Amino acid sequence: MLRLENVSAAYAQSPVLFGVNLEVRDGEAVTLIGRNGVGKTTLLRTITGLHAISGGELHLNGESVTREHAFARARAGLAYVPQGRGLFPHLTVEENLRMGLPALSGREGVKREIPELVFDLFPLCRDMAGRKAGNLSGGQQQQVAIGRALVTRPRCLLLDEPTEGIQPSIVGEIEAALTRVRRELQVAVLLVEQYLDFAWAFADRYYVMQKGTVVESGLTRDTPTASVQRYLGV
Description:
This protein is an alpha/beta fold and 234 residues long. It has helices at residues 40-48, 70-75, 93-98, 116-121, 124-127, 138-151, 168-185, 196-202, and strands at residues 2-11, 14-24, 29-33, 55-60, 63-64, 78-81, 156-160, 188-192, 205-210, 213-219. The strands form two sheets. A six-stranded mixed beta sheet has the order 6-7-8-3-9-10, sandwiched between helices. A four-stranded antiparallel beta sheet has the order 2-1-4-5, with helices on one face. The longest helix is centred in the C-terminal third of the chain and has 18 residues, at 168-185. Belongs to the ABC transporter superfamily.
């Protein structure tokens, strides 16, 4: 599904990622953890094409997308929910959802309309369709942001800190929705997350990043959260 081989990236002349190897299989959930500033967000942005890759290869669905623009990767089935949600606050919920429709261009047999599943997973997207996104709570905004990503009918979904600043009840709703997405649509998920209880409950495998590279990986079911907590402490 998604495979990274020795991926590197930099800001100007300052290297940030150093030969990252990572894989997410069909229908699998993988969590990426590490302290702030180790390169997790840069890695997600490099995968999506929003940040330039300086070395290595990116493969999606068995095809190299290393030199493809961000819009081409989106059309190939890659969707991204950034940290902070990235919604347009002065647009309505429905208008924000429709911003995902251009990613469907060129796909045969796919209607350019918001899938009913988005409203099924997140009823507020229908109930609050006419409300400005900037007037929603953080948890509500996160549901809209994930819904917008799902409008693109992705094969692989990237999520950057989806539980940040969200009340526990909404975190549970998001976890339930994402679990359905995985099981019913076989969408692969790569999740950057600091909340280990959520990450371990949802993900099958984990990778740990330090100083721009992967230093540990394994199965979440075989690894207690206490054994990786040291990678998150200051």
